[in-house]
Fold:
Amino acid sequence: MKILLTGATGYIAKRLLPVLLENGHEVVCCVRDTNRFDATRFKNENLSVVEVDFLRTDEIERIPADIDVAFYLIHSMSTKRGKFEELEAASAFNFKKRMQQTRVRQVVYLSGIVNEKELSKHLSSRKNVEEILSSSTYALTTLRAGIIVGSGSASFEIIRDLVEKMPVMIAPRWLNTRCQPIAIRNVIQFLSGVMLKPETFNRSFDIGGPEILTYKEMLLRFAKIRGLPRWIGILPIMTPRLSSYWLFFVTSISYSLACHLVNSMKVEVVCHDNELEQMLGIVPITYDKSIELAFDKIEQHQVLSSWKDALTSQPLSKGLSQFIEVPVYGCYKDIKTRKVADTARALEKIWSIGGENGWYFADLLWNIRGFIDRIVGGVGIRRGRTSPGEITAGDALDFWRVILADKEEKRFLLYAEMKMPGEGWLEFSIDKANILHQTATFRPYGIWGRLYWYFFLPFHGLIFRGMIHNIAE
Structure:
């Protein structure tokens, strides 16, 4: 079976792809930027990649016509490129236009549970996309899920942040909203299970776990599993804006995403009864078990995907390749060099930098800079990294984005996603003489950018000197 997998760099698609390949399917991965997709890690002849931005009608023709099944796993909730509802509608319309030109028999769409008259913008947009995707030339199967629990999922990481960082919580009243969380393993089983099943054609199914819980109950049960005593009080006067700020400052999500999530969390998402579980023979995993499975993956460093790797920076939407060539003119640079005694060890340190591993010198100053970034609305340093030892182009790394990670060329390049009046790059490379080159480049925007550089110059000298010393020794 030949399958088109859209959103292949996203959280769900990264989990679904290995399953499809293991089952012997030929998979065409559809990505907006091929530099963000590392096909070499799969080493499978049945895998191919096409670069398509569904907001550009001139690119959709790149999708092959001999497709049997297509998964539509695209959403724009965390983007900053205009109104996400309009972007999602435009993407769905262009996708449908191309699918109607192919021989695809079934489109599978992962949506959100819809059972309220007044929907949030997020759920309303998902419902609108479902209506757009309906067609007479192919069968549409829609799976509607609520809270998805798994290592690296947004819901899991938000709950983890709240529970681990706050022994006492004064929380908004939407914590009493009911939902039906589902384990990521079950989501993948449902997605792969409905492929070319005639009984699922032109139908929608709610998918969820075996329990209906409030968000407060989810937090307290998470705390119990982790052995953390926690107390939660509800403050009914907390407004959606205050709730968004509460999530933004305590967790690692962006403010725009916090706003969308708060609006969605006020809406009850409980499954309607349907026979899909029996039809596919799937046994729902309990909420407690899904938490335990998630931590098993985390402790074994086997987190396949994370919501944190989703692109949110407006400049990076042009593609990572636009930033591989670091600018020279009109820039300030801090260049450090040092002889490397053990090249392999130095590369290992570079590829492991950031996150829980730290920055090898003055981590307190890095954390302060991350806190400042958070205060002014940036991503901050709490985003960390998905894996402590592996990293590829496109991955998030604290308040940086990995642009290039090429061990053969011995070059590692980061682009700054923190809030500042300019653009920044941080590059590590080792030449044939085993000399480590560490270069920080800043392209300022106007007078404020220049003042920013000179204000932080003393700190840069201290931090970058210590960092290259500890990497090279």
The radius of gyration is 23 Å.
